[in-house]
Amino acid sequence: MVDVVTRARATRRRVKAVGAGHSFTAIAQADDVQVTLDGLQGLIAVDRQARTATLAAGTRLHQIPALLAPHGLAMTNLGDIDAQSIAGAISTGTHGTGARFGGIATQVIGAVLVTGTGEVLRVTSGEDGENAEGGENADLLPAVALGLGALGILTEVTLQCVDAFDLHATERVEPLEDVLASVHERAASADHLEFYWFPHTDLAMTKTNRRLPAGQRRDPLPAHRAWLDEVVMANGVFGATCALGRAAPVLVPRINRIAARLSGERTYTDASHRVFATRRTVRFSEMEYAIPAGEVVGALRAIRSLIEERGWRISFPLEVRFAAADDLWLSTAHGRDSAYIAVHRAQGEDPRPYFHAVEALLRARGGRPHWGKMHTRRAADLAPAYPRFADFQALREELDPDRVFANAYLRRVLGS
Questions:
Q1: Which of 7, 206, 362, 364 would give a disulfide with 289, using CB separation of 3.0 to 4.6 Å?
Q2: DSSP secondary structure code for residue 268 in this structure
Q3: Tens digits of per-residue pLDDT, 133-157?
Q4: Domain 165-369 in CATH: superfamily?
């Protein structure tokens, strides 16, 4: 990797690293040379006592549970998709849900990267994973842990893990107004809460997960039920209803009402990663914004009114999740407890009118866009949203003065 960067700098070419290519944005699109992290996979080191694990940067999230299991460890939190590389997930601010838990990048306590000058930079927070004293370049960790690929090419990532745990999951369809009336209490009392609102209906599907010691009383879904729910209903039937709604938009409200009621209720307990992540095969476009947690009810009501006023037919549910405040410089949850609202359009539908209008509503509530999902923001209007934005730009100037890692996306969101 050092040789690639050094030669690119000498010939004034640009280099971009790509993990799983999961982002909706062009954050990993290369102007000149693209390098894949596929050859950098696997567990490099583990410290069971300190509960830390060092992984090669290209390791996929879905590979990590099996790598940690022999050591009795797990990642603290995960999102609902596990196809990404660990480097890509942290670099774009991928997150799960849980008002007391941060995004995946908050689990990073160390990293190794090749900078734009071809140097190998090691960053650690300290041996105990919590105290920065004794760390190596520890002051840079809040930038490097979520760096958008602008500071260097990650080769190793060290995570602060936890003892392996199970999740008791409860999923049910409820009246939307009941959910909104108690959403802050629910988010505070649950370990992990998310919900989906089906546009054109008064219904929401809630997912509430409670953490339990591993193996205490595991009761996973029977194989046939999991196959029926996730393969047949969540992907097969849902894909068919999206296609039907695209062909006949007038049917979308009725389809959504049926889909919401068919979601049903289920309760089960399984290993944490099996509950966090779900299989998705339906293709779609997505935009997601982080807003202050206290704004979520007003924002949902505003989006609902917007959809009705514009006469849109939206087949995809809106997804709402939560995260704790953190100190990462470019984290969407920097300095504030946050709620995330994700909006989608099925493949073949033009997402721009819907996304642009929702983006305007969420920007007015202090919204910050997910770095790996569609948005229209630029450096000039992103800078005021991030108190450490100028510090990140200064560090970028130091680590990549010739902009070896620049591309069109980074020029738009970070400036030249």
A1: 362
A2: E
A3: 568 999 999 999 999 999 999 999 9
A4: FAD-linked oxidases, C-terminal domain (3.40.462.10)
